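call fold(seq) -> tokens
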Amino acid sequence: MSSPRINQNQVPLSEERRRFQRVRVNLLGRYMLADRREFPCQITDMSPGGMALVAPVNGKAGERVIAYVDHIGRLEGTIARQFPNGFAMTITATPRKRDKLASQLTWLANRDVLGLPEDRRHDRVIPRDPRAVLVLPDGTQSICQIIDMSLSGAAVAGVNKPAIGTIVRLGKTQARVIRHVDHGFAVEFTRLQHPDLLEENITGT
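ret:
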């Protein structure tokens, strides 16, 4: 009986675990399932052979996925296993692309070790109009109040607190819930905001 053929660009998950060291990351992005539906996501760990995503919608095991990850770019692969709040996927790549991804992950790991948290690098301000529209992953919208904000994040007042790691939109800006506080929660923006456009992109209804 002949052995099954293996795609040389796709490493089985068990082998991927042995060959590649996974790095804890905190990256935002989007992913597209085989039916072409797109959703926001957060990548929590990654190696040149695979990654784990916090995602609002799980695909099926073996389903093809295309992901666009901040600081990394476009990645393709298949769903290896599912979690209650997301899934793990393999990364299909040539050896050259894997080497490039390994270098990018090393840079990200060093940046996290040497850098300060984003929300400590920028002065916080109180907006003139504190009202903002909060959009959850399922499309639900609600009016919230901004306690304060900076170029990299905001503190939001509200009784209903999205789970930590949830990808939301605050005004026109994508963000991730990073912690809960007594009267609300804090978010970190996907990208740094321009000082002149901060209030325009975040607040106002």
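DSSP finds four helices and twelve strands in the chain.
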